[in-house]
Amino acid sequence: MNRRARSAKSTPVFASADSFEEKTFTGLSLTAENLSGKHFFRCRFENCALPESVWKRALLEDCEFHQCDLTRANVAQLGLRGVKFIGSKVMGVDFSGVSANPDVHFEECLLRYASFSKVSLRQAKFVRSQLREMNLYDCDLTDADFSGSDLSGANLRGCTLTRTEFRGATAVFIDPSRNKVKDTRIELDAAAAIAEHFGFTFDGPTKRR
């Protein structure tokens, strides 16, 4: 059976209902699982492999994903309210089409190649995560937290970075001509690297070697 056919309907574990409350799903291995329109309230996913799963118009409220694989999941119009991803692989996921004002927390996650475009991510957490080559375009990142994360090759353009926390993050590069910067928190070394990129020379303890 090909992938298109597999994704036409949910497997029995999810086909039994359209709404799940306070359920724990452990050790599932389902490629391209169709979860469109499903509602999950206070549910927990543990060690689940759900690559290329489809979450169109679904709702996750106060849910947690621990050590899960959601690589290239389709999250168009997915509602995210109080959702935590812990130690999970969320690579290549395009969050640009999620429902408005998602409330998300990523901790120790792999988000390489993930994309967020025109998404309000106020107070979102991206902590101690691999954000290499992640795209953030025209997003509101007011009070968001990137502490301890690796932003190597990440692209930030057109973003609002008011009080955004980047201290403790690595490979931070913010172009102030392409982003709205106000009280943005970065390490001195990152500030020196950005200044040097724009032609300034630093002397003293912050100078890069």
From TrEMBL:
The lineage of its organism: Bacteria, Pseudomonadati, Myxococcota, Myxococcia, Myxococcales. Pfam families: Pentapeptide_4 (PF13599). This is Pentapeptide repeat-containing protein. Gene3D superfamilies: E3 ubiquitin-protein ligase SopA. InterPro entries: 5peptide_repeat (IPR001646), Pentapeptide-BTB/POZ_domain (IPR051082). It comes from the Bacteria.
